Amino acid sequence: MPRRLPVLAAVGLSQQRLVVCAAGKPLIDVTWDSGMPRELELGLPDEGLRIAWDAERFGGPGSGRVELLLKLPQATAIAAAIEQRRRPLEPRRRLRDQT
């Protein structure tokens, strides 16, 4: 049976990385171009934003599936920002390559 523990959590999004911390410890800290964010499972239950992942793949303690339910007023906007950033992008072209 899964454990449910209330913890204080935070999500950080920047141009370069995604960070999810809970209980003062980083659970996820990955760059967008590493491909790791595409392995996250996102959901939008009524309660907020659900992020699930394999603990071993993300270097966390222990093994198995980890699921974090964040009760956020802006859950839809945060999920959309994560989805947008984790899509693979084509390599940038330099101006001199286009001439």
Compact description:
With 99 residues, the chain is of the alpha+beta class. It contains two helices and six strands, in the order E-E-E-E-E-E-H-H.
Q: What does it look like?
A:
This protein has 99 residues and is an alpha+beta fold. The protein has one domain: PH-domain like. 16% of the residues lie in helices and 33% in strands. It contains two helices and six strands, in the order ββββββαα. The protein has helices at 75-86, 95-98, and strands spanning 9-13, 17-22, 25-31, 41-43, 49-54, 65-70. The strands form two sheets. The protein has a three-stranded antiparallel β-sheet with strand order 1-2-3, with no helix packed on it. A three-stranded antiparallel β-sheet has the order 4-5-6. β4 (41-43) and β5 (49-54) form a beta hairpin. The protein is globular and about 55 Å long. The protein starts with 8 loop residues before the first strand and ends with a helix.
How are the SSEs ordered, and which strands pair?
Elements: E1 9-13, E2 17-22, E3 25-31, E4 41-43, E5 49-54, E6 65-70, H1 75-86, H2 95-98
Antiparallel strand pairs: 1-2, 2-3, 4-5, 5-6
Q: What's the SSE pattern? A: EEEEEEHH
Briefly note the CATH topology name: PH-domain like
**Adjacency order of strands in the biggest sheet:** 1-2-3
The top level CATH class name = Mainly Beta
Strand percentage? 25-35%
**Spatial shape:** globular
Largest sheet: 3 strands, antiparallel
How many domains? The number is 1
> Could you tell me the mean pLDDT?
84
The second-level CATH architecture is: Roll
User: Which spans have pLDDT < 50 for at least 5 consecutive residues?
Assistant: none
Distance between the termini: 61 Å
Number of helices: 2
Structural class: alpha+beta
Helix content: 10-25%
> Total strand count, please?
6
Radius of gyration: 16 Å
